[in-house]
Design brief:
It contains 34 helices and 4 strands. With about 900 residues, it is mainly α. Strand 1 and strand 2 (about 865-870) form a beta hairpin. The longest helix has about 45 residues, at about 170-215.
Length: about 900
């Protein structure tokens, strides 16, 4: 279960919250008639047309998808349909709407708010993309920023806004045509510039080898080539400017927007009948055609939405459907866009709804034109369109609820929080049992994740106590406040510490993280305890208020202010660590690729590695700058990271010789990092046949650790690895997989960042709230799910690891039942005839070939394992020779051989499993 499943769970929670609020909605509708008029005979938001509008939009999208999937409409025909929609139908709708718009009703402050909010999101996404990507990819940064800010205003947004606001605010539908140019004319050109820069850099990189080949020509010709390249570069810059201007002024949407404004001024009494009739016919064809075309574009674009391929699309969808609506709503309120409080509230809720519209299909067209991350944009567009459907529905439903009394929803929040906490406690116990039985609770960063689960368990107990106790319970409410506040605050801190741990495991060492572990415990549980104790000392009356409050703000504004400060700090730390982790990861991958080139055993004998290092150092001392230039080309984008480490070899007394080999040079960064990687690999590579082990967990030489500190680190790491080895032989620890499960922890941190962001928005809203609206209630229920249900999110991320419980449970059962952890095989007389036949057949026809093919001696330090092989290697051999049709069949075949005493585990602990467990043929064979 990945981020898509967690997002679906959040949407399901919102739908449940919406269902529980039906009583409040019905009460309000009873006082406002059928939803079309209120107490003052004033029109209100109509929900009657919302259901048909949503059904109409997504039914046509599905029809288009089926037409493309069944190949009823080909790609060539779809291109013609796209041309008609973009060149004729959409411009006609825009011109007709703007020419007939009553400009006196336009609120320019609201449009300014939309511009500011979109600019904030655009710049944030672009800057973070530039910081994370290595090497820097300007094109991707511009494209992702466009994706997160350009909404599907016309095909999906316009019908929904018209259905909701046709009676109370009919001008809101016209705002759609005014908000679209904000992206098309102001923000998108910035993205175009970035993509053009990326295109020019890619073209220059392709031409670089040609320029290198020309370096041997005479100096005069070389000078003329330099002048030609300068003129070519200047010409390229001019072409970028011309293309940007052309994309702005010749865009049909922008052009018809300008002409529509001019047409409204020229024909104040209405367009001529001949012109309006033509435009109306073309415009009427837009809705169905555009939705159908959107469905066509979805064909074949959802295949990447699985596993690691969903991480980046998931982040984009979160920013588009969650961050943009909240930023828009808050910006409208800060600017105070309305003439009064009521109008500002209406505009802010409309801005929130506008932000929930999915990404526009036009982004896919832009990606195709620049050939930039086409598959990424296509899959993200598919997912955002369908995820936005329930979010738009719930948001539209909540917009109808205004001026609520807290008692109208607290009872329902009470039940919802109680149910979520019960489920979360079950998930917490599940995950703790999983981590303990698999011994991951003793590993990093799972140790941090376990503490996060424990904190969430404490928080859930506090929520259940809040739901169960009366306000006059006295000391029980004090106890409840302790449990809830400490659990909630510590879970936020553990999230930040998890991000710090993953970063330091990547860029520093395991030893450094183990040293920080006691500090993490003291800060994560000590700081919340101190905060709660201070609140007790300062004011005990707010802890047990006279009326029931949201448990997150039970203490009042003081608790909300503390939550804002804590969430801001943890959010910044988590985001910063994720960005730095990606940068160090890219840098580390380049170092590893270079170290493989230097010490690859495939090129020469096994001594190539050490000799290559020697040659590198000798080349550096004799030809100063040769290796330096190679390193610089590989890590030029990370110079700012390396500058702080340039003196890493100075004063190093480990005898590696990196300082002395430079003969006094002041640039010691050219070889030391690669040397550290290669030497570390050679020291740890005690296994023959290229069986490499994970790094030793010590800090590299560039950090200048003292000798006493190194000895302490080594003993700390040895004790840590002894605890986490789970009785396996060192050779049986899977080194091909990610021991730290970095990918899953990254997904977990991204989802927890969503929880932080929603909690921060709700806390800020609570501090400045003047009246409670339906959107506030929607955020309250969403925050309840994302905050109290963090254990559910953890289980959703690690649910696939549940299968690993099998081996620990079997070992535990054997220890209880037999008194020893040894495999008990059935006696020979009880073995079935089929198993005996399989064993005899294998011994007679396949044993010698198998032994020669996969059975080899493997060495770990001074211990040698004779004629052994891994279980997954034996499965591969069975599939290769045709003795099994798939891996499950091969596993069953091998289990028969174990029962028949043909194979055995080297320690007689495990039955046969398709994994990195070591097996050998029995001695009697």
């Amino acid at each position: 279960m990945g981020p898509m499943d967690s997002g679906s769970a959040a949407v399901a929670a919102l739908m449940l919250a919406n269902k529980t609020l039906q009583a409040a909605v019905l009460t309000q509708n009873a006082t406002s008639g059928n939803g079309t008029s209120g107490d003052d005979d004033q029109p209100t938001i109509s929900m009657d047309n919302l259901y048909p509008a949503l059904v109409q939009c997504f039914a046509i999208i599905i029809c288009g998808y089926l037409a493309g999937r069944l190949n009823i409409i080909t790609n060539t025909e779809a291109k013609g349909l796209n041309t008609f929609v973009g060149t004729f139908a959409l411009p006609s709708v825009i011109f007709l709407s703007l020419a007939q718009l009553d400009w006196s009703t336009v609120n320019w402050n609201f449009l300014l708010s939309i511009l500011i909010s979109k600019t904030i999101v655009f710049l944030s996404v672009g800057i973070i993309s530039l910081l994370v990507a290595r090497p820097i990819n300007y094109g991707r940064a511009g494209l992702l920023a466009i994706f997160c800010t350009q909404s599907n205003d016309f095909a999906i947004g316009f019908p929904i806004v018209t259905a909701l606001y046709s009676k109370i605010h009919p001008e809101y539908a016209s705002y759609i045509y005014l908000m679209a140019p904000i992206s098309l004319a102001i923000l998108n050109p910035i993205g175009y510039v970035l993509m053009e820069i990326s295109k020019i850099k890619a073209k220059a990189a392709e031409e670089q080898p040609q320029q290198t080949r020309r370096s041997s020509i005479p100096p005069c010709s070389q000078l003329s080539d330099t002048d030609a390249s300068s003129r070519k570069l200047l010409k390229g810059k001019v072409l970028v400017v011309v293309k940007i201007i052309e994309s702005i002024f010749l865009n049909p949407v922008l052009l018809m927007t300008l002409l529509g404004v001019i047409g409204g001024r020229i024909f104040p009494n209405g367009l001529p009948i001949f012109l309006s009739s033509i435009l109306k016919v073309l415009g009427d064809s837009f809705s169905a055609t555009s939705l159908f075309l959107l469905g066509l574009r979805m064909v074949g674009n959802a295949a990447a939405l699985q596993g690691p391929g969903f991480i980046l699309p998931g982040i984009l969808i979160i920013v588009k459907l969650l961050v943009l609506p909240l930023v828009t709503r808050q910006t409208v309120n800060i600017i105070n866009a309305g003439a009064n409080f009521s109008e500002t509230t209406d505009l802010s809720t409309f801005g929130f709804l506008y932000g929930t519209f999915p990404a526009a299909p036009g982004v896919f067209v832009i990606a195709s034109q620049y050939n930039q991350d086409v598959d990424l944009v296509a899959s993200s567009m598919v997912a955002s369109t369908f995820i936005s459907a329930p979010l738009m529905f719930i948001s539209a439903k909540m917009i109808t609820i205004t001026n609520l009394n807290p008692s109208d929803y607290l009872n329902e929040l009470d039940k919802f929080a109680f149910d979520i906490s019960i489920v979360a406690i079950i998930c917490s116990v599940w995950m703790l049992v999983l981590f303990m039985l698999t011994r991951r609770v003793k590993k990093m960063p799972h140790r941090i994740t376990s503490c996060l689960i424990i904190s969430q368990l404490i928080c859930n107990i506090g929520v259940i106590m809040w739901s169960s106790f009366d306000q006059n319970s006295g000391w029980k409410m004090y106890l409840q406040f302790y449990f809830f506040t400490i659990g909630c605050y510590s879970s936020r801190l553990w999230t930040a510490f998890l991000a710090i741990t993953i970063l330091f495991l990547q860029c520093r060492s395991l030893c450094f993280v183990l040293k920080l572990w006691p500090l993490f415990i003291a800060a994560a549980w000590g700081l919340p305890t101190l905060i709660v104790s201070l609140l007790f000392l300062l004011d005990t009356k707010n802890i047990t208020p006279t009326e029931k409050r949201n448990p997150s703000f039970q203490y009042g504004n003081a608790q909300a202010a503390i939550a804002v400060f804590l969430l801001v700090m943890c959010f910044i730390v988590t985001v910063g660590c994720l960005i730095l982790h990606q940068r160090f990861k890219k840098r580390h991958e380049r170092y590893l690729s270079l170290s493989r080139e230097v010490s690859s055993p495939d090129t020469e004998s096994s001594t190539v590695g050490s000799s290559s290092v020697t040659n590198l150092i000798q080349q550096e001392s004799s030809i100063n700058g040769g290796v330096h230039r190679r390193r610089h080309s590989l890590t030029s984008s990370d110079d700012e990271i390396l500058r702080g480490r340039e003196s890493g070899c100075e004063g190093n007394g480990d005898g590696n010789g990196c300082c002395s080999a430079r003969s006094g040079t002041t640039s010691p960064r050219t070889v030391v990092d690669i040397e550290d990687l290669i030497i570390q690999r050679s020291l740890n590579n005690d296994i023959e046949n290229d069986e490499s082990e994970s790094p030793n967990g010590m800090c590299s030489a560039q950090f200048n650790c003292p000798s006493a500190g190194k000895q302490q680190c080594q003993s700390l790491i040895d004790r840590y690895r002894e605890q986490s080895r789970d009785g396996l032989e060192p050779l049986e620890i899977d080194k091909t997989g990610d021991e730290h499960q970095t990918l899953k922890h990254m997904v977990l941190l991204i989802l927890l960042l969503c929880s932080m962001f929603v909690g921060l928005a709700l806390s800020v809203w609570t501090l400045v709230m003047e009246g409670m609206s339906g959107i506030y209630v929607e955020l309250t229920f969403l925050d309840a799910f994302l905050n109290f249900g963090q254990s559910i999110i953890v289980l959703a991320v690690f649910i696939t690891d549940t299968g690993e419980l099998l081996l620990p449970l079997m070992k535990f059962w054997r220890k209880i039942w037999y008194g020893a952890n040894l495999l008990q095989l059935p006696i020979w007389k009880e073995i079935s005839a089929e198993t005996r036949h399989v064993c005899d057949q294998f011994i007679t026809h396949h044993l010698d070939n198998c032994r020669k093919a996969i059975a080899k001696d493997k060495r770990w330090r001074i211990k040698i394992y004779r004629k052994v092989f891994y279980g997954n290697a034996f499965v591969d051999w069975l599939l290769e020779v045709g003795l099994a049709k798939d891996r499950s069949d091969a596993t069953l075949y091998a289990r028969r051989l174990v029962d028949g005493r043909v194979l055995r585990h080297i320690n007689n602990v495990y039955h046969f499993h398709d994994r990195t467990l070591l097996y050998t043929f029995c001695d009697r064979l």
